[in-house]
Amino acid sequence: MAKLTMVQALNLALREILREDPDTLIFGQDVGKDGGVFRVTEGLYDEFGEDRVVDAPVAESCIAGVAVGLCLRGLRPVIEMQFSGFGYHAFHQIENHVSRFRTRTRGRYTCPMVVRMPYGAGIRAIEHHSESRETIWAHLPGLKMVIPSGPRNARALLRAAVHDPDPVVFYEPKASYRAFKEEVPDDPEDFPIGKAAVARPGSNVTIISYGASLRPTLEAADELAEEHDIDAEVIDLQTISPMDTETICASIEKTGRAVVVHEAPRTCGPGAEVVARICERSLMYLEAPIRRVTGYDVIMPFFATERYFIPDSRRIVAAARDVVTF
Amino acid sequence: MPRRPIQLPHRIESLSILDSEGNADPALDPKLSPTELKKLYRAMLLSRRLDERLLRLQRQGRIGTFGPAMGQEAASLGPAFVMKPNDWFIPSFREPAAMLWRGWPMDKIILWWGGHEYGASVPEGVNDLPICVPVATQCLHAAGIAWGCKLKGDPSVAFCFLGDGGTSEGDFHEAMNFAGVHQLPFICVIQNNHWAISLPRDKQSKAPTLVQKCIAYGFDGIQADGNDIFAMIVAAREAADRARTGGGPTLIEAVTYRLGVHTTADDPKKYRSDEEVECWKPKDPLVRFHKYMVRTGLLDDAAVELIEAEIAEEIRQAVERAEKYQPDPMDSFRHTFAEMPPSLAAHAREFLESMAALSSDDGTEQPEPRQLADA
Ligand SMILES: Cc1ncc(C[n+]2csc(CCOP(=O)(O)OP(=O)(O)O)c2C)c(N)n1
Ligand SMILES: [Mg+2]
Q1: By alpha-carbon position, which residue is closest to atom 19 of ligand 1?
Q2: Do the Cβ atoms of B157 and B146 come closer than 8 Å?
Q3: Strand A232-236 with A197-200, pairing
């Protein structure tokens, strides 16, 4: 067991993957000598060389489109969009080809690639570097959308994403990259994709979150317990698509109350899908209306005022108390 | 059925006027007036000193990540000198020298890097776009502006800037192609500073020059010494004359060098040698222009000292103004749509409540959001 940051844990996962499977390679801007702008690929170029840790030109469509070809030829690329804000340049390749090859060729060709992208606000980055647009990717059938929340599940989910037979968009919460350390087991572990985790068991209210928002959610749960005598269960979705209805609804059927938290804008955000699933399956268990604590439906502002637009534990505590005292 | 070489109609030249000792080639010298030369020198120095100030502000945590333009001042200032007020300037993010020349208030530039939309709100009366972060996307906007000018019978020209890395993006090629087909008043300046973060120029493209890409799109181009203010002015002037007389687009490759970090978040020691940087230092555009100005008797130490003092004061005042700026976080709601839909107004009210709660239970100072009614 070592205590690692998320950056170190992702680096570990990539190192393991490159060691285990000679068909894997990393392809993205500045992933080589530079080790990635966030140092996630640090040292990998030295260990695996320029044919397996490959610097891309400044062309995201090139990265994704070429990766399709690599997949078709039997390789397993782990590609990087330097920031999720530039992943849209690759959108047409991902929507029109990555997500569809299996279906349209009836399984003859597949694209088992992983598309890593740092996302989210909170690091005082410049314009276009702070958005949370997981919904865009989660909306594409044939594509899986995974978001880790801490070092341990980052490592285990990234491994699982690479091992998955289908394409995975892997959003990395950059505000959590170095924010805290966590014990990461020495032995490799894969966490199942499509499965949520109970990050904190509880009985009075279920708070569902993921990614960068999990930390303020857990802080809120502590505060609810210490100051308001409310025992919150926290669910970490881990996979946005395909979403784990079972874990969510089992918790709701126990607590009867729900709050959903994410940094992405509210309209059509992942929270809308969570609420819909709860209503479809567990409406009769609900004791109170569900509340969403999310980003507002605005463009994430430049960083000087961004903190007011990121859900914090205060807003989560207030919503949970409303739901519990309804 | 012979097999023979194809004659392409476009030739590529390279242009350099000022040598590293500050001597201008008399046959090519654009022969600017002493007043123009002094103005240009001051503008170049201003951009350099602002860069240095912003680097310090970043280190002190007073602005965010900052991308300096150090060493590239001539590459954007030359074309800016040629632009008319009604021309359109479509920058990337390493053109502060041109922005200042065009009349952008310095505090806006500081505030852009300080994390405020105010820094992207284009001053009235200036036909410019704000700093553009998504690499090369602005090239298509420039092509569209040039097309719009043509459609409206407006004689203005669109000057677009991007980096060597940007030439790998599809948007650059699509803009070039479109501008060529429609013979648009479009001038594209590639600031080839030899690096795209950690990727060297020769890994970006196998082509021996970047300017030769213009041939594929059917128009002229020129490779200019981007650290030579005169070469940049002459190249841009020829391009502008062509564009204004219906001769279509031009691609200018400004050969320059990124003397500093990519941004303050970058550590170039990981990927490039100090020797390489040292080799470029004598070619610094400011050093060369300074030598020229001294050699021609337009400047002496006392004059430079005076300009330095003026510039220091100008920057000090701009920083002071910038740091007094008070953002209104409600602006994010106000400027989402022309009219705020009810669902967004509900979010705005929720936001105001959250801000009010924050001010009451958190001792720190918060910006004061103006209520919705003031919108
Ligand atoms: C579409 C897009 N992809 C990636 C980035 C991240 N990024 C910012 S600058 C840069 C390198 C750009 O190199 P170049 O075009 O040569 O400009 P320079 O930074 O050298 O001025 C990259 C990859 C971005 N801003 N936009
Ligand atoms: Mg460059």
Answers
A1: B196
A2: yes
A3: antiparallel
In order of A44, A201, A229, A323, the CA distances from A225 in angstroms are 43, 12, 5, 15
Amino acid at A190: D
How do residues B66-100 score in pLDDT, each as one tens digit?
A: 999 999 999 999 999 999 999 999 999 999 999 99
CB contact under 8 A, B344 and A57: no
Please tell me the distance from the alpha carbon of residue A110 to that of residue B208, in angstroms, as a whole number. Answer: 37
**CA A29 to ligand 1 centroid distance, Å:** 9
Structure-token pair, residue B220: 């002229």
Q: Which fold has domain A2-184?
A: Rossmann fold (3.40.50)
Determine the Cα angle at A48 with ends A47 and A51, to 5°: 150
Give CA torsion, residues A297, A299, A302, A305, to 10 deg: -10
The hierarchical CATH code for the domain A197-324 is 3.40.50.920
All domains of chain B, ordered by start, with CATH?
Answer: 12-324 (3.40.50.970), 331-374 (no CATH)
Helices (H), B83-211: 96-101, 106-113, 137-151, 170-181, 201-204
**Enclosing H/E stretch for B218:** none
Spatial separation of the C-alpha atoms in residues A93 and B149, rounded to whole Å: 33
pLDDT at residue B375 is higher than 50: no
Instruction: State how far the Cα of A119 lies from the Cα of A310, in Å rounded to an integer.
Output: 13
Burial of B184 (0-12, 13-18, 19+ CB in 10 A): buried
pLDDT tens-place string over residues B238-288: 999 999 999 999 999 999 999 999 999 999 999 999 999 999 999 999 999
* A307's tokens: 């903190």
Query: Which part of chain A has CATH 3.40.50.920?
Result: 197-324
Question: Is residue B362 scored above 80 in pLDDT?
Answer: no
Q: What one-character DSSP code corresponds to residue A51?
A: T
Q: Of the ligands numbered here, which is closest to the C-alpha atom of B136?
A: 1
| Mean predicted confidence (pLDDT) in A17-36 | 98
What local confidence, expressed as pLDDT, does residue B1 receive?
75
How many residues does the structure list for chain B? 375
Q: What is the per-residue pLDDT across A116-168, written as a single tens digit (0 to 9) for each?
A: 999 999 999 999 999 999 999 999 999 999 999 999 999 999 999 999 999 99
Q: Is A211 on the interface with B (CB under 8 A)?
A: no
* pTM of the shown model: 0.97
- Confidence at B374, pLDDT banded by 50, 70, 90: very low
The answer to whether A33 contacts B204, with C-beta atoms less than 8 Å apart, is: no
Task: Give the position, in ligand 1's atom list, of the atom nearest the Cα of B164.
Answer: 16
Q: Which residues of B90-100 are buried (b: 16+ CB within 10 A; e: fewer)?
A: bbbbbbbbbbb
CA closest to A293 among chain B residues: B350
Are the beta carbons of B354 and A314 separated by less than 8 Å? Answer: yes
- Mean pLDDT value across residues B42-50: 98
Per the CB < 8 A criterion, the answer to whether B127 and B156 are in contact is yes
User: Which ranges constitute the DSSP H helices of chain A?
Assistant: 6-20, 44-48, 60-72, 91-93, 101-104, 134-138, 151-163, 214-228, 245-255, 270-282, 313-324
Please tell me the predicted confidence (pLDDT) of residue B160: 98
Q: Is A228 a catalytic residue?
A: no
B194 lines ligand 1 (CB under 6 A): no
Taking residues B309-330, what's their average pLDDT?
Answer: 97
| B201 is a catalytic site residue | no
Facing residues of B160 across strands? B90, B188
